[in-house]
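Each lists sequence, tokenised fold; shown next:
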Amino acid sequence: EDEEVADQEEGRDESDSRGRDYIATAGTDNTMTGLEQAQEEMNRAVEELERARANLPKELEPEALRETVRGAAIDADDMSDEFLEQLEALEDDGASGGGGGPAAGGAAESEGESDESRERSEEVEVDEVNAESFGMKFLANEKERVGRAKAELLSSAQSGDEDGVRRAIRRGAPVNAADPNMVGWTALHYAAEVGSLDTVRTLLSLGANASAESHFQTTPLHTAAQHENDDIVEELIANGSSVHARNDAGYTPLLMAAGRTKVTVMRMLHRAGARLDDATYCGNTALHLAATNGHEHMVAGVLGMGVPVDARNGEGCTALHHAALMDRHVAVQRLVESGADPSVQNSEGQTPLHCAAGQGRLQSLEVLVAQGLSRDVLFVADEANRTALELARIAGEGLCASL
């Protein structure tokens, strides 16, 4: 009986020892799995770093960023060595813990291995967190840094600061970055607006897109033409900016210029291939726009370039309708002298005389009447069966006496 009891106790000891060995080995396997996952996270972080670096133009990549990326790669290599050392240590411990031996010695050995495994697991958890957050933290810092450089670029372009533009681009600002607070303008839009030729040339030399579009499809050439910066218009055209580009209202750069005061800008665009018969999506030609703003020399310049004097827009209005409506009496005089027809009716049946009388435009009304208009023109009725005289009576202002 004593021998049987001894055999049973010895069997239990061996079973307990095997159980502890299994638990210790399982713990090691789980720890190794955690390390492998951390290693994968670390590898992904390094890939993210390399992609971030690849997105920056190499000729403009700041030296500080190069050093940071190199440091990140070195840290990643060191981390890899540390992982390998920990794995080798765990494998060695697992191998030594698998052998047989006396029951009491096996139990003590397994308990020691479990303590070491727990300590290593705690260390590995720290490494896992570092590996997972390292790349994201770096990318967040990069995003903030590039954001500051971008703001500096746009601000410098707005003020015509060529040196500031160069500095911002060296710091990583994308040369074609769009300003979300200004309908998507790029630095080139800003430089074209303020008339800084040196800044425009610097941006173009660094790769700025001469045909970049804002949220409303406005290009830098539209902006330069609108602000009458003829030297920048010439520079942008030389660098491939399209004279045929339209914004979301259908304006070409030439149509932008037509509403301003510099005939030279419009002629420059025309020589570069811009069409004189282009119109906005509402049908307004360069002559409509010039007449609306009332600049006599622009009206004369557009007429001299061959734009039809009685071209109609989408509402059937001629340039004379627009000039009379806005009381641009000098433009009215120029248009009439150039052969504009005062009897043309728009889609509402109104002549330029109706437009002037209905809005109380006394000076334009007097210019039109002075042309010796026939009774047919004076008493033609619009779609609402109203004559110019009736509209003048409603408007008052002594208009009836003029008629």
Confidence is low (pLDDT under 50) at residues 22-28, 68-80, 98-110, 120-128.
